[in-house]
Amino acid sequence: MAAPPGGQRAGREVTAPVAIDPTTANIARVHDAALGGRDNYAVDRQALAELLSAAPQTALAIRSVRRWLVRVTRFLAQQGVDQFLDCGAGLPTMDNTHQVAQRHNPDATVVYLDIDRATTEYGQALLAGRDRTFYLHADLTRPAEVLATPAVAARLDRSRPIALIQCGSLPYLDDSAQPAEVLAEYVDALPAGSFVALAHWWDPADGAGGSALARATEQAYQDGSLGAGRFRTRAEISALFGGLHILEPGLVEIDQWWPEGPSATPPTLAERLVLGALARKN
Description:
alpha/beta; disordered N terminus
């Protein structure tokens, strides 16, 4: 696998083109570093180090979210869903949505989108030549534009159910971006029988240690080079689903969402500060 321009690959740095700024951290590459990937810059690894300094278990939480994505994508594919729109997808790393979905149904179509140009160009290069997997450069906060682009309109059949994936993307929208309204616009455009899979950083807001860690981590995101990252309350996250029917086991800590089996070790406090759910549009 080739590295993105300027990214780390096989332990070396590669010169970046002018269009890519290797001096500014990017959340997709920070997550890649947390997942153990090598497609990131030194500045991204520094941003991760800043987060870990404030909340040492953050990387474990990011990895837990990835495991949840694998489980929810597999569940959807096993239910016969064969169309996926993955918003704010970040860098293709390991166990991506298309790999999991197409493992169960080779005919599944997956469209990724991300607002970061370098991320999307790298994703497009990796997925070149695939006829059922595409990477789109787009702003997820503009649903009408996203759904009208040829990459989406020509490849996702809106007369049949579509799975909308928002896996850790909405925490990076501040309240001023109106994440509930953004999600509602997508849902309104989806056909009946479609699904929304959503994972979100959670503040228990109970005055205990989890809430303190959520607030400290959010502050580390906002004070650091990333400049964004919101932990929302259960009520705020639940409100994002609007009138959708949330499937069992409901909006839960993600390790409780159809786990592979009993865990050998309990989740860390940081891993517990992510809620996830799968909802259906009736």
